[in-house]
């Protein structure tokens, strides 16, 4: 329902657009205030003033925080493009040969971060000391359109069409079990005879879930985890068998691959960004660095 404000046709300022983006990204008054480095009352008064000047609601208030209306989302899209162009202009205006600087926010899963990325990111941080890294661990793909993150690194067979990126390579997987677990059996067990560690229903569409349901329909996993890294940990500690990417366990002396690599479980590793920021220097540098330094073998 629209407020009964009079539309004064006041023009939007850059500060207004910055406020809008801060509240969308921060989701709450506190979150926006932290981003803008002001107090919450200033954010509240400013957004009320802006809505009054426009004669339209920009946010719906809910238990989940401040959710942008259709108009709020449309204005945010313009604001993000302006923000991106401004960042590129600043980089262009910088002296030739100056060091890359700024904050680079990267989102990925705990599995990829701990199993693949951290060694490479340590090298990137050393090479570019003025770039600050913020690492966001989540199994959900962050909303890069709202700049929840600048870059997403994901294992996927089909990256979202609205994002741009680079395919780094292929991630094979297999079924692993610990030597200590396998020694409980008088002879080598079949896959059906072993206790299984699997992902829970929050990851019901994961390729490992689909493969197990098709190939081993009578198996009912004894253990459930909400991340692949947790499945790998449970395997190492001898709790049973589980599907794990090779990069996590192939060099672990405590386990054996009892089936695989399995072609139907292969997935691709992608670096993704929103088209509006793909040309930023620090984003380009990360893409180039990871393509050259991230080892999937």
UniProtKB/TrEMBL annotation:
GO MF: DNA binding; DNA-binding transcription factor activity
Keywords: DNA-binding, Membrane, Transcription, Transcription regulation, Transmembrane, Transmembrane helix
Cited SUPFAM superfamilies: Periplasmic binding protein-like II, Winged helix' DNA-binding domain
UniProt xrefs under InterPro entries: LTTR, LysR_HTH_N, LysR_subst-bd, WH-like_DNA-bd_sf, WH_DNA-bd_sf
Residue intervals passing through the bilayer: 228-249
Glycoprotein listed as a keyword: no
Domain HTH lysR-type: 12-69
Name by which UniProt lists this protein: LysR family transcriptional regulator
């Amino acid at each position: 329902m629209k407020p009964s404000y009079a539309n004064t046709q006041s023009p939007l300022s850059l500060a207004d657009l910055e406020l809008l983006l801060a509240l969308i990204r921060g989701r709450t008054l506190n979150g926006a205030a932290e981003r803008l480095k002001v107090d919450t009352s200033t954010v509240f008064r400013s957004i009320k003033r802006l809505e009054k000047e426009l004669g339209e609601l920009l946010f719906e208030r809910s238990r989940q925080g401040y959710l942008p209306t259709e108009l709020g989302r449309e204005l945010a899209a313009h604001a993000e493009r302006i923000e991106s162009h401004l960042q590129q202009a600043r980089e262009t205006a910088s002296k030739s040969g100056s060091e890359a600087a700024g904050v680079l926010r990267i989102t990925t899963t705990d599995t990829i971060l701990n199993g693949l990325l951290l060694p490479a990111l340590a090298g990137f941080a050393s090479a570019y000391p003025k770039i600050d890294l913020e690492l966001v661990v989540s199994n959900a793909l962050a909303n890069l359109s709202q700049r929840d993150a600048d870059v997403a690194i994901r294992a996927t067979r089909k990256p979202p069409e609205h994002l741009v990126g680079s395919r780094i390579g292929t991630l094979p997987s297999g079924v692993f079990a610990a030597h200590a677990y396998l020694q409980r059996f008088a002879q080598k067990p079949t896959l059906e005879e072993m206790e299984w560690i699997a992902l829970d229903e929050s990851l019901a569409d994961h390729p490992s879930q689909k493969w197990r349901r098709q190939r081993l329909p009578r198996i009912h996993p004894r253990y459930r985890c909400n991340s692949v890294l947790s499945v790998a940990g449970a395997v190492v500690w001898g709790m049973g068998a589980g599907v794990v990417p090779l990069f996590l366990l192939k060099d672990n002396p405590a386990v054996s691959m009892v089936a695989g690599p399995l072609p139907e479980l292969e997935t691709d590793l992608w670096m993704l960004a929103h088209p509006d920021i793909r040309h930023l220097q620090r984003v380009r540098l990360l893409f180039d660095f990871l393509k050259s330094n991230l080892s999937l073998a």
